Amino acid sequence: MRKPILAANWKMFKTRDEALDFIYEVNGNVPSKDLIDTIVCAPAIHLRTLVKRQGENLRIGAQNMHYADEGAYTGEISPNMLVSTGVTYVIIGHNERRRYNNESEQDVNLKLLAALSHGITPIVCLGETQEQYEHADTDYILREQVKTAFRGVKSVDASRVILAYEPIWAVGTGISAPSELADQKCGLVRRIIRQLYNQEIASEIRILYGGSVNPDNCEELMSKENIDGALVGGAALYPDKFLKMCDICLKCKSR
Ligand code: 13P
Description:
255 residues; alpha/beta; TIM Barrel; 8-stranded parallel barrel; 12 helices; 15% strand; globular; binds 1,3-dihydroxyacetonephosphate
């Protein structure tokens, strides 16, 4: 049994007060951490504030980090710094960072290794562009992304990684990938992990779907076998929708 995950990616939204309002509203209402991992990945500037106020069932994550421990990298944040704020998760390789900040597959690999060695749970984003999707290149892209991301990751660490399949054409569009397709691609990612490692790790590793998930389509997506949870952008900015999706995800995965 893989524990489900509902993770919010707030992206560059919410001031400090707005972030705190959200946390105060959801803290006492998220389901038990024994049943589901509930995570809010917030802008870096709010991390310490939110960690101090996180309830026992909510965890705070970062949206990015550098792979070096320290150095002359103006504006960057190191794994050590994240650890010192108390965050326990970090999103790595989100498509917006790949697109707007030129993050390469190599960067994703280095960040993944750095997160693991610092005890931060990485949420690694994968997914194809619209053009790659139209050219039926999705499987090839996913294979390359997974293979490069896991280069040098030891078997003992592999199942600590969380993967998120986020087809870029479904992110922020309001139209999610069809649930069968999302399930199929998450299944493919699981098979790639089995080929790289073994059956045990493949059946333990958690694979999320992301891309226009909302309270209305959440049940359909979360009832799929290979989808272990969701990484949600826009809809997770609202406490009521966030809580609803936590409940739906938990319900689907306890059937
Ligand atoms: P939306 O849920 O807004 O499509 O964003 C998904 C996403 O990018 C999560 O990382």
